[in-house]
Amino acid sequence: MSDFFFNCPRCGTSYCCDDSDRKNLFQCPKCSHFFTPEKTNGKICPSCGKSIPEAAVKCRHCGKILDASVKKSFSASRGPDFRKNLVGFLLLAVLLAAGIFGWREYSVRKAAKEAARREALEQDRLLAEKRRREEAARREAALQREREAEVKRRIAEEARRREAEAKRRAAEEAA
Predict the structure, then answer these.
(1) pLDDT score, position 71
(2) What does 127-151 look like in DSSP terms, one character per residue?
């Protein structure tokens, strides 16, 4: 008798038996499903276990490429392989992370410089305000001294005028 291949209709697991067992009820050891085996036309896909034509180079169910020469030409036509894409992606991720980190550092340093500049401007403003107040106090003190000198001059002038008035009256009374 010859061997034939069949698949479990529920889980798709592939099995092989001879023609004598073909009409018997079969229980799948994997999923415990009972069924009568049906011969597949062609071969069984090693990846998914489903029946595919004998001349098939690619499984129509799972997409697995079965012929090695077709697999090489298919992967060559698809462009760079996964590792190259992964290296490019990782390089891009590293550059992006470095850019973000660099931008963050730049922003922090720029903010620190701006804060230092503002602090220096505030110190300059406070120093200029202090100088203005000191200058205003000096001017006020000078004005006060001038007022005091003016008051003393007026008092002295008033005293001379009274003395001259007293001498004139004394001379008028003596005459």
Answers:
(1) 60
(2) HHHHHHHHHHHHHHHHHHHHHHHHH
